Amino acid sequence: DVDHPMVAVRSDDHGQTWSDPVPLAAPGVCPQPLLLDNGVLACSYGTRRYVHVITSHDGRGVEWSDPVILYEGQTSGYTSVQALDDDRFRVVHQEGSSNAFLPGGSRFVRTEFRVH
Predict the structure, then answer these.
(1) Strand pairing of 22-25 and 41-46?
(2) Which of 25, 46, 67, 74 has the smallest set of CB atoms within 10 Å of its CB?
(3) CB atoms within 10 A of CB 79
(4) Confidence of residue 113 (pLDDT cuts 50, 70, 90)
(5) What is the distance between the alpha carbons of residues 44 and 6, in angstroms, rounded to a whole number?
(6) What is the Cβ-side half-sphere exposure of residue 67, based on CA atoms within 13 angstroms?
(7) CA dihedral for 42, 27, 67, 61, sign (positive or negative)
(8) Among positive and negative, which fits the CA dihedral 105, 106, 110, 111?
(9) Nearest to 51 by CA among 63, 35, 64, 67
């Protein structure tokens, strides 16, 4: 539901106070943030029907890229984000079908990114 986007809130005082929520992305489940050693913040998220990845290069996660669409289909699972190097990361997710049998079962997909 686009009326209920994923939001970000911030604390600059170790959680004593928090900012107002700011829309971050389309609705998503279980966002998986990862701060790379080069300062880029990556985040994967989705629903049962899609998986997206966004990145922030400002060192704080205030400004984000447009989403990269990794999957849009019948069903997907939670994502996992893994650092591979200072400027590389991988997103792992599951793709499947809730309407028809998939020969061999669901697919596990690994997508690698390099960000500067």
Answers:
(1) unpaired
(2) 74
(3) 25
(4) very high
(5) 12
(6) 19
(7) negative
(8) positive
(9) 67
List the structure tokens of 52. Answer: 């997206």
Q: How many CB atoms lie within 10 A of CB 76?
A: 22
Q: Residue holding tokens 């690698």?
A: 112
The separation between CA 68 and the C-alpha centre of its own chain, rounded to angstroms, equals: 9
The pTM score is 0.83
Whole-angstrom Cα Rg for the chain: 15
Per-residue tokens: 109: 């997909």
Residues 6+ apart with CB under 8 A from 112: 84, 88, 89, 90
Give dist(CA 71, CA 23) in Å, integer: 22
- Residue 62: count other Cβ atoms within 10 Å of its Cβ: 11
